[in-house]
């Protein structure tokens, strides 16, 4: 345990950032302007798509007054709630792709900061969306786990990194139409951790149709989870 006072730790963090900025100045990922040690400049950060928008509390699709959307009223999904901090559009889409496929882990710090600004979830455990072992070997890391670990620490919640196994190496959901996505992901998850009576918060990067998160929640509820809330970086907006 560190013997440094909180104020001293803050000062050291500021000093480290100042040194890093001086030695390794960074350009904004979106516009190329100087951004110090940050991924985005202050202007682009303020203008991220969907930031601060009202959303359906169940599926996080944009809603004018933050009311439950018609789709969730017609048929409630297996999960209980979803929070998304951004819309999946430029430059968020490029930032997420840089994290997932370009191994640019620095973008995860930005996402964690944005996600941590929302209220702390009423949950007992944090679960990242798992990758199939073959996909994990190929990519080298699970981007959802890279978000879940620091978020769980900030929330003061335990994180479970190996409590669910993804048995099916499914085709990428983004390449499939909606009905095919549901069939593609069915039965993909096997819960190995004891979740009876637990309130679970699931961490993922992008929610598109919600088919993967719905199947994951279905597996968690079948294993005894009492409540499942999703926290995602970005939500794909409804078609115009």
UniProtKB/TrEMBL annotation:
InterPro entries: ComF/GntX_DNA_util-trans, DZR_2, PRTase-like, PRTase_dom
Residue span(s) of domain Double zinc ribbon: 21-73
Gene3D superfamilies cross-referenced by the UniProt entry: 3.40.50.2020
Residues spanning the membrane: none
A Pfam cross-reference name: DZR_2
Record domain Phosphoribosyltransferase: where: 146-237
Family: Belongs to the ComF/GntX family.
Name of the protein in question: Amidophosphoribosyltransferase
Organism encoding this protein: Zoogloea oryzae
Lineage of origin: Bacteria, Pseudomonadati, Pseudomonadota, Betaproteobacteria, Rhodocyclales
């Amino acid at each position: 345990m560190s013997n440094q006072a909180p104020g001293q730790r803050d000062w050291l963090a500021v000093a480290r950032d100042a040194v890093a900025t001086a030695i390794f100045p960074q350009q904004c990922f979106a516009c190329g302007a100087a951004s110090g040690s940050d991924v985005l400049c202050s202007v682009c950060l303020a203008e991220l798509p969907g930031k601060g928008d009202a959303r359906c509390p169940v599926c996080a699709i944009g809603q004018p007054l933050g009311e439950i959307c018609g789709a969730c009223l017609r048929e409630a999904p297996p999960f209980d709630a979803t929070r998304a901090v951004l819309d999946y559009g430029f430059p968020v889409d490029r930032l997420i792709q840089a994290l997932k496929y370009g191994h640019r882990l620095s973008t995860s710090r930005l996402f964690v900061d944005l996600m941590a600004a929302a209220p702390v979830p009423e949950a007992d455990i944090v679960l990242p969306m798992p990758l199939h072992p073959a996909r994990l070997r190929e990519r080298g890391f699970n981007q959802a786990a890279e978000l879940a670990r620091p978020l769980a620490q900030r929330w003061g919640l335990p994180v479970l990194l190996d409590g669910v196994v993804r048995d099916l190496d499914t085709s990428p959901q983004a390449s499939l139409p909606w009905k095919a996505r549901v069939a593609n992901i069915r039965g993909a998850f096997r819960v190995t951790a004891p979740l009876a009576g637990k309130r679970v918060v699931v961490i993922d990067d992008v929610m598109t149709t919600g088919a993967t998160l719905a199947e994951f929640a279905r597996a968690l509820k079948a294993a005894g989870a009492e409540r499942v809330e999703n926290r995602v970086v970005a939500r794909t907006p409804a078609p115009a």
